[in-house]
Amino acid sequence: MELSLCSMHTAQGRFFRPYETDFPESFTGPLCEESISLESRTFSTLLTPLKPIQDGTPITGIDVSSIRIGETEKGIICAVRGALVWNLDRRYRYLRVGPFPFHITEENKHEVFRELRLSPPTTSDSSGPRLAETQSQLCNLVERWLQASVSHSARGNIVLWDGSLAAGRRASPLNEVSRILKVAEENSNTVLAFSKATTIRFSGWRVTDLVAGHRPPCLFAVEDLPLSASRTMRLLGRIYVAKLAERGFSFRLDIDRAVSREGSIMAVERLLGNELIYQGYPETLRLAHIYSTFTASDVIGIQSFLTQEYGLKVITRRNVRKTLFGPYGTGFED
């Protein structure tokens, strides 16, 4: 919060170009997954059918998002917001954290990394990290902070993360993620991380395609398969493919490696028994994404507030895409 306020004071009285907020959105139902024949005995031993366990286990979901609000003559203004959603006896409550606005410039970006005790991205350019990378780091910092807070305060929860339990990137330091998982285990919490997309493949197929044609709910253990994945990442969880609902999507699911295989399966069964599953995705995590994501009206409100609070002089810029392409210029900030 202090860094947010300090960075925004550097924008005091500057010229401000708000970004447009016409976010095209569409909804499509579940798509038919292409069927892959995996009927061998080897694969059948990796497939585990699931039976819901309804025992009142609390479910907590965490998600964070960021967005660029506009730009000044010195840099960019972005905002970060996180959301916690918890489900107890099918009654959902939420807590929004933020939004935190930041004015990131070429002059203060190194100070931002230093204040937050983050190592700046290494680039061949001596000028240091790009402003967009700084925004990404701020988003990841808030997400790790919320994950650590829940791991410390919750007891006996199933904690849902958006993403994977792979560490080793700058955004997911190994020691930091390991520490959060250890605290969660000490407090009898089980961390499940759902990924909507994955680059891990087996024989050229995405691992999420491996359960197509199998009856849900089920788990498919892919850890022992010869997978094609990044060698620079450290996997802190066992990798499964989870298909939890009829006509739903399949997701990569990482479960904390400190949890036994039997305990991992039971945790997913407890999730099924105590959570609403929408198109194969946990409702708590879906709501966390919705409450953290910035809508067009959110962006307009933040722009208006910052303009008044910091005396920004709003200037408009022509939309080059719409000038060139008319109604076909639907892209947002190339």
What can you tell me about this protein's structure?
With 334 residues, this protein is of the alpha+beta class. It has one domain (2-26, 33-328). Helix content is 30%, strand content 28%. It contains nine helices and 17 strands. The chain has helices spanning 2-9, 41-44, 109-115, 131-153, 174-186, 261-274, 283-292, 296-309, 320-325; strands spanning 15-18, 47-49, 59-72, 75-88, 91-105, 158-162, 166-167, 190-195, 201-202, 205-206, 218-221, 234-235, 237-243, 250-256, 277-278, 281-282, 313-314. The strands form four sheets. Strands 1, 2, 3, 4, 5, 6, 8, 11, 13, 14 and 17 form an eleven-stranded mixed sheet that branches. Strands 7-12 form a two-stranded antiparallel sheet. Strand 13 and strand 14 (250-256) form a beta hairpin. The radius of gyration is 22 Å and the shape is globular. The model is unreliable at 24-37 and 123-128 (pLDDT under 50).
Tally of domains: 1
Note the gap between the termini.
30 Å
The level of helicity is: 25-40%
Structure classification: alpha+beta
Number of strands: 17
Please provide the ordered H/E string of secondary-structure elements: HEHEEEEHHEEHEEEEEEEHEEHHEH
| Cα-atom radius of gyration | 22 Å
Low-confidence stretches at least 5 residues in length (pLDDT < 50)?
24-37, 123-128
Mean pLDDT: 81
